[in-house]
Specification:
575 residues; alpha/beta; Leucine-rich repeat, LRR (right-handed beta-alpha superhelix); SH3 type barrels; 13-stranded parallel β-sheet; 7-stranded antiparallel β-sheet; 18 helices; LRR_dom_sf
Amino acid sequence: MEARRALTEVEASLGRDVDVETPVPFELQFELMTLPDDTLETHLRDLNAVLGVLQAQQRREIGAGGLLPLELESIRLDIGGVTMSWSLTQRLTSLLTSGLPFSLFAFSLKKPTEENYEGMREYVGRFLRTVCGQAPRDGHFVDAKQGGVKMLSVGCHDCDEWQFAALCSAIGSASVTKRLALYGVYSRSDTAEVRRWKWQWLAYALFRTSTDSSVQRALITAHHLTHEVTLTIAVAIHSNSPPATVSAEIVRDESLLNLDAWRHDTSGYFVKDTELKLLDPTQGGNGGSASILLEEDSWLHIVNDDDDDNFNVVVPGFGIARVDKFCATQVERRQHQTTDTASCGLKALNLGLGYHSGDDGGEVFADFLQLIGSRLQSLGLYAMGSYPISMASIGQACPQLTDLVIQDMELSNPSAFCLDVERSHCKLKCLRLVNAFSSNDQITRFAQTIATSSSHMAQHLTELGISGSEASCRLDETNVQTFLSMLQTNHKLTYVSLGMNVELQTLHDENFRRHHGEPLPIVKDKLPTVNKLAFLSAVRGRQQATTELDDGVLTHILGFAANCATRAVRIHYDD
């Protein structure tokens, strides 16, 4: 605000018209955590009113014309753990569907008490449909242009089974959310049966091939993988259905031979006010006393039609419900209901895996990637324990991969890493390896490979990060010298980050600085031509531009406008 006033005064003193109408975007962040429910509701009511006034004022400023009008670009809101009630649901629904530009919404669901259990199922369902873009308004679903939340951060630490199923059912039908972060999915108190059940719901929500979900990027902190878990994930993906109940039954390998007979690709059309009996996943699939009425005419995915009288259907925001078969006015096969199927499905996954002590971790993880990796373009793996994985397995499972991060995960054949990349269909552009190598010779061979212009990997790689620790292998003098030589011959890498000890950093700091900012013979594609011309116009035709502008500002202006890319080199201390 001070800068705007100062600019207005300068322009007025020079006798110029104040007509710079380019809006100045800004972001607001609110943290309303650890508040009592009634206090939170009051703050949400006031926040909705204040933001509405602010948005109206901005429209008037932009419409009237003026010097650098402000424009609210995004809002980040964290409400912490909440126990849903009717009034809180109304407050949140009103706020999140108001058309305000929410870019992040963070929350955690608390377990209900016995007194409010039945009511909370409906409140949680309405709330989840809202945040994922499922809430109807005036008979129509909320459109992303009218608001909605593009990124959700959900804490599942205190989330019970029916809430988790409700959450996954909403995610699986999301129409607005693009990015998702799930924390605390698995607790120490979870039984093996509950863990498998949760993995199946996650697979249904994020990994199935016939999804219509808008979620494209996901971060999941999860429990360790086992052979039994990968089998249950395979069942969820290939049968195209989530589990109705938490079951102690373990899927056998031979059962996968009959998956085609299990597949559920049909949906039923149900009219408004159809009664749906919500299933309790902990009660053997029996419909409890909780029931809801369908808000709008809807197609619902049928996941079980074995009963003579009833269907089991997935209701976004509520999990699985039982409905009378005669209520379905139409039943037909409906896959990929969106017009642009290429936009559906997960494109990026960051997965944090818990400790695994068995000898089959690498095999299990390779099977997991085969199940979920075909559409992935970006993959981040963070693990503890024994998950030895080869680049050959990653490349085979994820042929479209362009971005890869491997941290604290052992490479089963690090010496063949580059060769495996060459043999795969992957065209890696961004690569970060942390504690992935077990010897300095492996690091040296890696650096030598990307120094060779004929290397398939060197032709595509533009960003690279390498670091280690005492637990794995740190860069030594030979490694550093090899990377310095690589920088002289590799003209494609625009960003390089290397971790090393203090002594090596001090010794070679100046050598790496010579490569920082150096121009590269490649054309960058970051700004449209009109933007580049705008930057150049700041200095064009002004004889004293070099003296009036700070050197740093001038460097940034010319850098943004330049067609030629420059290299950024960062060296840092290994932890």
